[in-house]
């Protein structure tokens, strides 16, 4: 009986690995980026849109003081509710974040985050609007990537609400390539909120891309006990 169970488990593991390998991800390269899962703070699950510049400054200071930065929690992601819909520069098309929420702009906030030793992340969407109805990046990938680079952004999370009727791989590739073209190293984590409940991650640096596997969207919460990660691969290495 034990031998039969062992054989069955091996078959299930092999099937799961095969399924993970067949997911529609961008081609992974062993380029040295994100050797371990990025860890840190993102506001959405705890605060939603009810946050501002001060929220991140106080969080960064607290995380440095209490030892979380030293323990590897080194990324702060400004997540959702950043640029009101339609708020773009009329000439360049660059996104214009909420000036009340970000009185020093995103660059000013990222500069502060960097000064404490953290990486600065930002959120956008492959569609024209984000999940909360703020400005997305569809059709503006190039100028958005260039703007993020000018702000000193290290990490881009790209959601898929209100996405156009295009293949996800093609949609996510647009921002990946735009980030690569800036010449600035960037980690692009693309969230696939499709009916499959999978999150597709695409990690980029100039000219290259690394992809990892999936998590169940409905399991993600601001309580670590709710996290049940699925298979996660980067260039042949479990991460």
Task: Please provide a written account of the structure.
- By secondary structure, the protein is an alpha/beta fold.
- β3, α5 and β4 form a beta-alpha-beta unit.
- It is built from six helices and nine strands.
- The strands form three sheets. Strands 1-2-3-4-5 form a five-stranded parallel β-sheet. A two-stranded antiparallel sheet has the order 6-7. A two-stranded antiparallel ribbon has the order 8-9.
- The longest helix has 20 residues.
- Helix content is 31%, strand content 15%.
Give a brief rundown of this model.
By secondary structure, the chain is of the alpha/beta class. The protein is built from six helices and nine strands. It has helices at residues 2-21, 44-47, 53-65, 105-115, 141-151, 168-181, and strands at residues 40-42, 75-78, 119-125, 155-159, 187-190, 201-205, 208-212, 233-234, 237-238.
